Description:
Catalyzes the condensation of isopentenyl diphosphate (IPP) with allylic pyrophosphates generating different type of terpenoids. The protein is 44% helix and 13% strand. The protein is built from 10 helices and 6 strands; from the N terminus they run H-H-E-H-H-E-H-E-H-E-H-H-E-E-H-H. Strand 3 (120-125), helix 6 and strand 4 (152-160) form a beta-alpha-beta unit.
Amino acid sequence: MPKNSPKPxxxxxxxxxxxVDELLLSxxxxxxxxHVAVIMDGNGRWAQQRGMRRIKGHRQGAHSVRxxxxxxxxxxxxxxxxxxxxxxxxxxxxDEVTGxxxxxxxxxxxxxxxxxxxxxxxxxxxxxxxxGRRLRKSITDLEEATADNRDLLLQVAVSYGGREEILQAARxxxxxxxxxxxxxxxxxxxxxxxxxxxxxxxxxxxxxxxxGELRISNFLLWQIAYSELYVTDVLWPDxxxxxxxRAFDSFGGxxxxxxxxxEQIKQxx
Length: 269
């Protein structure tokens, strides 16, 4: 549900660390989703429109990541999930994939101190076995370093596929049932969710997709059952605080029913 909680108090030192538009954010009085998920699309097109290599678009997109992370933390969003690299993306040109993995590793190392200062806890979700050893080590080190941070949970989906996540959860439960640790009749939505990569995090209230594509691309298939969707034609490298607030305003104008009728919602108010 949207919330209008007060913005977290911040010292002058913390404000000076922000790269976002502080004035724009401080004036915002609209709804704040608890959990925001973003399908970051359009980096390659952004670069191609400017006659650049696709990796340049991904590098520019990393700046948008920083702005959105800091904006969400500033506004009081509790969880932010970013779709960075899907299992299907392994089929892209080798030089692009290599560049993306290198960029991700550099981002982890470069942003560590900033994430710590801003109280951001990071979790990487997806099939880590497909990642290189050095990158896996960097991810583990960053997760351990930020484990006690509480201002914002940042989940980054890398080598992620929603169908594979559900299959793996089903395999885990099937094994538990075969081993006698769990009776089939005891499998519920709650026990299933415990096996997902996102276990412990609330389901997204709002899913934002950039670049105008009208699809969810195998992203959080279980978790977004009742999420509100917001699609913008803006390419990810051009997505900024103003675009984020437009998405929040759109979210605030929705009537979230969770399968109920409008009449039932009115009766419960």
